[in-house]
Structure formats: structure tokens, C-alpha cells
Specification:
Layout: E1 12-16, H1 28-37, E2 41-43, E3 45-48, E4 54-56, H2 90-93, H3 118-132, E5 136-138, E6 141-142, H4 145-150, H5 156-162, E7 170-172, E8 174-176, H6 179-189, E9 193-197, H7 203-210, E10 216-220, H8 234-240, E11 244-250, H9 262-271, E12 276-279, H10 282-293
Parallel strand pairs: 1-2, 1-12, 2-5, 3-6, 5-7, 8-9, 9-10, 10-11, 11-12
Antiparallel strand pairs: 3-4
């Protein structure tokens, strides 16, 4: 079928933090499940350790998605209810285990899986690419670079160094909410970059100011429509500026307002011409795409 995407091909399904609806987020096991389901892209979030090693976590505070608060050896490292990744050494982060942070999702895999280092994710992607005979695309987000830099834990230099010699069968795109650190990554590496835009962002200004060097805009799904449910124009504007548009986040257990179910929500976004969809449950995104391809 014809698509309204940037290059008229089918939109991609991005496994948001892996198959995070079914496994604790940001684990090799969750990434593997997403890939086995058919996800087109795997999305890790990256935070630094105290010694500058990048790990996959959604935020520097480890309390939400790890068992750090259950570990007596780390009790004195707590600060105002938080344990920050950049205050623990890499070997200490290696000992932690992932938890399912979302209420209502299965906790049956809690404390079973390690927190993966970014280097281990690249190695895993290369192995998966060899086994399936096609490249694996990783779409990491660099988390809170300015705040971390103020704590002398800037993750950008470590990331730039990490992608200097990527395996030939691993493709990396990069995303961040902050334009300046993302521009540093782009200028140093030449990797395709996506600026993240939340629901309050002035997307018109962001596209105008940054389209010359960006490859993608990764927007909150709330930016796709106006208050009366009409298309906002963000997809058309980004495409006209040469940018692909990815939207976040689609969740089976948290359906957007006005939709009967998440598949209807996904189909509506695809009809707007979205190029990629961040999904906690990648299989659902793939089913919605198949539904449109069948002409439903």
C-alpha cells in the first residue's frame, strides 16, 4: 500500500526500552524478545557510571527500575531517596538487577536480568545481526547530558568514543532532548541524530533551527494533533524540512485519549505519515502496521 511516510515505505516499529511491556526495561533479554517479535529498531537509554562507563537505564536515578534499594551494601549511597548511576562504579552497577517499574505489568522477571553496558549491547547487536543475516539498528538516547555534565559526568565524550569503531552490521542512530549535546555527537561522529520534542515543545522553531543537521524529529504523540483532534502539521513540516518523524510512546496498557484501544491509536498515527513508532509492546505495533497493509 502507499504510505505517507517520508520515503513512502512502511513505518518502523521501535522497541521502546526493548519489549518493556513484557520484560523489565533495558535488559538484553527484553531487547532479544523485541527483535524476535520483529521489531525494526531497538531503543536503549544511556546513563554513565562514576567511572564513565555507559549503561542502559531510563534515568540516572536507579531506584525506579533496579533492586538497588534492596541492597544493604548501597544503603549509605542513597541521597534523598535516589541512587545515581554516576555515583556508583561500573563494577557496582554490574551487580544490580532490573525490576519492572510499571504497576500492573508482570514482575515475574524481576531481579533476573543484569543492567547491560552499552558496549555489551553493541556486542549483542552484532551477534544477532550475524545470526539473522541482516544488520541490527540501535537508537540510543543520551539521557540528561547537561545535568550530568554539571556533576562532572558528561556522557557525551564516552558515547562519542564508544561509536568510533562500530561493527559493520550494527547501525546506530542517536537521540536526545537537548540540541547542543546532540549537535556535538553529530559533528564528532556523523551519525544520524534525532531531536526529542515533548508535548510542550515549540516544534516549528525546533525544526527551523535544527533541520540542517538533524535526520529525524522524535516527538511526543501529543504533538501529532491539535486540541480538536485535527492533524497539527508537525509531520508535514518535518518532512518538508527533510526530517523523518518518530512518535512516542504507544503502550497497550495506557491508551491515548479518544481511542478505543492502542491498535486504533497506532493506526491513526500511521495514517498521519509517522515514520517510526516507539512501542512498549512491539508486537502490537507490528500488528497495527499489518492491519494497514491489509487495507483495513
Amino acid at each position: 500500500m502507499p504510505w505517507n511516510t517520508f520515503d513512502q515505505t512502511a513505518p518502523i516499529v521501535i522497541a521502546h526500552r526493548g519489549a518493556s511491556g513484557l520484560r523489565p526495561e533495558h535488559t538484553i533479554e527484553g531487547y532479544s524478545l523485541a527483535l524476535s517479535q520483529g521489531a525494526d529498531v531497538i531503543e536503549p537509554d544511556l546513563v554513565p557510571s562514576a567511572d564513565g562507563v555507559l549503561f542502559a537505564r531510563h534515568e540516572p536515578n536507579l531506584a525506579r527500575s533496579t533492586d538497588v534499594f534492596l541492597r544493604p551494601e548501597f544503603a549509605e549511597r542513597q541521597r534523598d531517596g535516589a541512587w545515581h548511576s554516576d555515583e556508583l562504579l561500573a563494577v557496582e552497577l554490574d551487580t544490580l538487577r532490573a525490576l519492572q517499574p510499571f504497576p500492573g505489568r508482570s514482575d515475574g522477571h524481576d531481579r533476573q536480568f543484569a543492567l547491560p553496558r552499552w558496549s555489551a549491547i553493541i556486542d549483542w547487536a552484532a551477534r544477532m545481526a550475524r545470526s539473522r543475516g541482516s544488520a541490527v539498528t540501535l537508537y540510543p538516547e543520551i539521557k540528561e547530558p547537561s545535568a550530568l555534565a554539571r556533576r562532572d559526568s558528561d556522557p557525551v565524550p564516552a558515547f562519542i568514543e564508544s561509536v568510533t569503531h562500530l561493527p559493520d552490521n550494527v547501525i546506530v542512530w542517536v537521540q536526545c532532548f537537548e540540541a547542543e549535546p546532540l549537535r556535538r555527537v553529530h559533528d564528532a561522529t556523523g551519525l544520524p541524530c534525532a531531536l526529542l520534542l515533548d508535548s510542550r515543545a515549540d516544534w516549528r522553531m525546533a525544526i527551523k533551527a535544527n533541520s540542517a543537521w538533524l535526520a529525524r524529529a522524535a516527538v511526543s504523540k501529543k504533538l501529532l494533533t491539535t486540541g480538536n483532534g485535527q492533524a497539527s502539521g508537525v509531520v508535514e513540516a518535518a518532512h518538508a524540512a527533510g526530517l523523518r518523524v518518530d512518535a512516542w510512546t504507544f503502550r497497550d496498557d495506557s491508551v491515548g485519549e479518544g481511542y478505543a484501544n492502542v491498535e486504533d491509536e497506532l493506526v491513526a498515527a500511521m495514517r498521519l505519515g509517522i515514520d517510526g513508532l516507539f512501542c512498549d509492546f512491539p508486537a502490537t505495533g507490528l500488528a497495527a502496521r499489518k492491519r494497514l497493509e491489509a487495507g483495513d
